[in-house]
Amino acid sequence: MELSNDVVLSPGQLREIVESIAKLPKTWQSKVYFDLTERYCVRLHREDAYEVWLICWDIGQDTLLHDHGGSSGAFTVAKGSLVEDYGKITKSRLRTRRHKAGKSVGFGPDYLHNLVNVGMEPTVSIHAYSPPLRVMNFYCSLPSGTHHLRAIECDTPEPDTTALEAEAATLRVAQR
Ligand SMILES: [Fe+2]
After folding, report:
1. Which candidate among 44, 117, 125, 136 keeps its CA 20 to 30 Å from the CA of 79?
2. CA of 97 to the centre of ligand 1 (A)
3. Distance from the alpha carbon of residue 67 to the mean position of ligand 1, in angstroms
4. Backbone angles phi, psi at 98, to 5 degrees
5. What is the pLDDT of residues 43-69, one digit of tens each?
6. Confidence (pTM)
7. Ligand 1 centroid vs 114 CA: distance in angstroms?
Protein backbone atom coordinates (compact mmCIF):
# COMPACT_ATOMS: atom_id res chain seq x y z
CA MET A 1 0.00 0.00 0.00
CA GLU A 2 1.20 3.50 -0.77
CA LEU A 3 1.14 5.69 2.33
CA SER A 4 0.53 9.42 2.18
CA ASN A 5 3.21 11.85 3.32
CA ASP A 6 0.87 13.18 6.00
CA VAL A 7 1.69 12.31 9.57
CA VAL A 8 -1.83 11.06 10.16
CA LEU A 9 -3.28 8.15 8.18
CA SER A 10 -6.96 7.93 7.26
CA PRO A 11 -9.34 5.28 8.63
CA GLY A 12 -9.32 3.69 5.16
CA GLN A 13 -5.53 3.46 5.10
CA LEU A 14 -5.47 2.00 8.60
CA ARG A 15 -8.09 -0.54 7.59
CA GLU A 16 -5.93 -1.64 4.65
CA ILE A 17 -3.01 -2.07 7.04
CA VAL A 18 -4.86 -4.27 9.55
CA GLU A 19 -6.44 -6.34 6.78
CA SER A 20 -3.09 -6.97 5.09
CA ILE A 21 -1.43 -7.96 8.38
CA ALA A 22 -4.29 -10.29 9.33
CA LYS A 23 -3.78 -12.10 6.04
CA LEU A 24 -0.16 -12.85 6.99
CA PRO A 25 -0.51 -14.96 10.17
CA LYS A 26 3.18 -15.86 10.10
CA THR A 27 3.86 -12.23 11.12
CA TRP A 28 1.76 -12.46 14.33
CA GLN A 29 0.72 -16.05 15.06
CA SER A 30 3.76 -16.78 17.25
CA LYS A 31 2.80 -13.79 19.46
CA VAL A 32 -0.73 -15.01 20.26
CA TYR A 33 -1.20 -15.60 23.97
CA PHE A 34 -4.36 -15.86 26.08
CA ASP A 35 -4.49 -14.75 29.70
CA LEU A 36 -7.60 -15.63 31.70
CA THR A 37 -7.17 -12.58 33.95
CA GLU A 38 -6.85 -9.83 31.32
CA ARG A 39 -6.64 -9.18 27.62
CA TYR A 40 -3.16 -9.69 26.23
CA CYS A 41 -1.75 -7.22 23.73
CA VAL A 42 1.56 -6.77 21.95
CA ARG A 43 2.72 -4.05 19.55
CA LEU A 44 3.55 -5.42 16.12
CA HIS A 45 4.79 -2.21 14.53
CA ARG A 46 5.32 1.47 15.32
CA GLU A 47 6.42 4.50 13.34
CA ASP A 48 5.68 8.22 13.62
CA ALA A 49 2.44 8.04 11.64
CA TYR A 50 0.86 4.92 13.07
CA GLU A 51 1.18 1.80 15.20
CA VAL A 52 -0.22 -1.72 14.97
CA TRP A 53 -1.24 -3.96 17.88
CA LEU A 54 -2.26 -7.57 18.28
CA ILE A 55 -4.94 -8.12 20.97
CA CYS A 56 -5.88 -11.57 22.32
CA TRP A 57 -9.28 -11.95 24.00
CA ASP A 58 -10.22 -14.88 26.16
CA ILE A 59 -13.92 -15.67 26.45
CA GLY A 60 -15.90 -12.87 28.12
CA GLN A 61 -13.11 -10.28 28.10
CA ASP A 62 -14.05 -6.74 27.13
CA THR A 63 -12.85 -3.17 27.06
CA LEU A 64 -14.65 -0.35 28.78
CA LEU A 65 -16.40 2.13 26.52
CA HIS A 66 -13.58 4.35 25.24
CA ASP A 67 -12.32 6.71 22.57
CA HIS A 68 -8.76 6.89 21.25
CA GLY A 69 -7.71 10.33 22.45
CA GLY A 70 -7.97 11.99 19.02
CA SER A 71 -6.37 9.16 17.03
CA SER A 72 -8.10 7.54 14.10
CA GLY A 73 -8.04 3.76 14.01
CA ALA A 74 -9.05 0.46 12.48
CA PHE A 75 -9.33 -3.12 13.58
CA THR A 76 -10.03 -6.51 12.09
CA VAL A 77 -10.91 -9.84 13.66
CA ALA A 78 -8.31 -12.43 12.64
CA LYS A 79 -9.80 -15.34 14.60
CA GLY A 80 -13.01 -15.74 16.62
CA SER A 81 -15.51 -12.87 16.89
CA LEU A 82 -16.18 -9.64 18.76
CA VAL A 83 -19.36 -7.75 19.63
CA GLU A 84 -19.04 -3.98 19.46
CA ASP A 85 -21.14 -1.22 21.02
CA TYR A 86 -20.20 1.88 19.04
CA GLY A 87 -21.11 5.50 18.49
CA LYS A 88 -19.82 9.07 18.39
CA ILE A 89 -18.43 11.10 21.27
CA THR A 90 -20.98 13.82 20.57
CA LYS A 91 -23.99 11.47 20.60
CA SER A 92 -25.22 9.39 23.51
CA ARG A 93 -26.89 6.64 21.48
CA LEU A 94 -24.84 3.48 20.92
CA ARG A 95 -25.46 0.76 18.37
CA THR A 96 -24.34 -2.87 18.55
CA ARG A 97 -22.89 -5.16 15.89
CA ARG A 98 -21.00 -8.42 15.68
CA HIS A 99 -17.71 -8.85 13.81
CA LYS A 100 -16.73 -12.31 12.64
CA ALA A 101 -13.25 -13.28 11.46
CA GLY A 102 -12.36 -11.32 8.32
CA LYS A 103 -14.48 -8.27 9.18
CA SER A 104 -12.79 -4.90 9.62
CA VAL A 105 -13.75 -1.40 10.74
CA GLY A 106 -12.08 1.98 10.23
CA PHE A 107 -12.97 4.98 12.39
CA GLY A 108 -12.18 8.64 12.92
CA PRO A 109 -11.14 10.51 16.07
CA ASP A 110 -14.75 11.09 17.18
CA TYR A 111 -15.48 7.38 17.50
CA LEU A 112 -16.07 5.51 20.74
CA HIS A 113 -16.71 1.84 21.33
CA ASN A 114 -16.70 -1.12 23.66
CA LEU A 115 -15.54 -4.50 22.35
CA VAL A 116 -16.28 -7.84 23.99
CA ASN A 117 -15.61 -11.45 23.14
CA VAL A 118 -18.99 -13.08 23.77
CA GLY A 119 -18.16 -16.04 21.54
CA MET A 120 -17.34 -19.58 22.58
CA GLU A 121 -13.69 -19.40 21.54
CA PRO A 122 -10.73 -17.08 22.19
CA THR A 123 -10.43 -14.20 19.72
CA VAL A 124 -7.47 -12.53 18.03
CA SER A 125 -7.73 -9.04 16.53
CA ILE A 126 -5.34 -6.61 14.81
CA HIS A 127 -5.63 -2.86 15.58
CA ALA A 128 -3.98 0.22 14.09
CA TYR A 129 -3.98 3.81 15.41
CA SER A 130 -2.83 7.05 13.82
CA PRO A 131 -1.20 8.93 15.33
CA PRO A 132 -0.02 6.30 17.85
CA LEU A 133 -2.08 6.29 21.06
CA ARG A 134 -1.15 8.84 23.70
CA VAL A 135 -4.35 9.07 25.72
CA MET A 136 -7.68 7.28 25.90
CA ASN A 137 -10.92 8.57 27.41
CA PHE A 138 -13.13 6.06 29.18
CA TYR A 139 -16.90 6.30 29.49
CA CYS A 140 -19.87 4.38 30.77
CA SER A 141 -23.25 4.20 29.11
CA LEU A 142 -26.04 5.18 31.52
CA PRO A 143 -29.80 5.63 31.01
CA SER A 144 -29.12 9.38 31.17
CA GLY A 145 -26.51 9.18 28.38
CA THR A 146 -22.79 8.59 27.92
CA HIS A 147 -20.84 9.59 31.02
CA HIS A 148 -17.14 10.50 30.80
CA LEU A 149 -15.20 8.69 33.51
CA ARG A 150 -11.58 9.69 33.02
CA ALA A 151 -8.76 10.30 30.53
CA ILE A 152 -5.80 7.95 30.91
CA GLU A 153 -2.41 8.67 29.36
CA CYS A 154 -1.19 5.50 27.71
CA ASP A 155 1.08 4.02 25.09
CA THR A 156 -0.94 0.82 24.85
CA PRO A 157 -4.57 0.13 23.89
CA GLU A 158 -4.95 -1.79 27.16
CA PRO A 159 -4.25 0.61 30.06
CA ASP A 160 -5.23 -0.53 33.57
CA THR A 161 -8.94 0.29 33.95
CA THR A 162 -9.66 -1.75 37.09
CA ALA A 163 -10.68 1.29 39.14
CA LEU A 164 -12.82 2.64 36.30
CA GLU A 165 -14.75 -0.60 35.97
CA ALA A 166 -15.75 -0.37 39.63
CA GLU A 167 -16.66 3.29 39.17
CA ALA A 168 -18.80 2.50 36.11
CA ALA A 169 -20.59 -0.30 37.96
CA THR A 170 -21.35 2.03 40.88
CA LEU A 171 -22.80 4.66 38.53
CA ARG A 172 -24.97 2.11 36.74
CA VAL A 173 -26.39 0.83 40.03
CA ALA A 174 -27.05 4.39 41.21
CA GLN A 175 -29.10 5.19 38.08
CA ARG A 176 -31.36 2.12 38.27
FE1 LIG B 1 -10.68 0.97 20.82
Report:
1. 136
2. 15
3. 6
4. -110, 135
5. 999 999 999 999 999 999 999 999 999
6. 0.92
7. 7
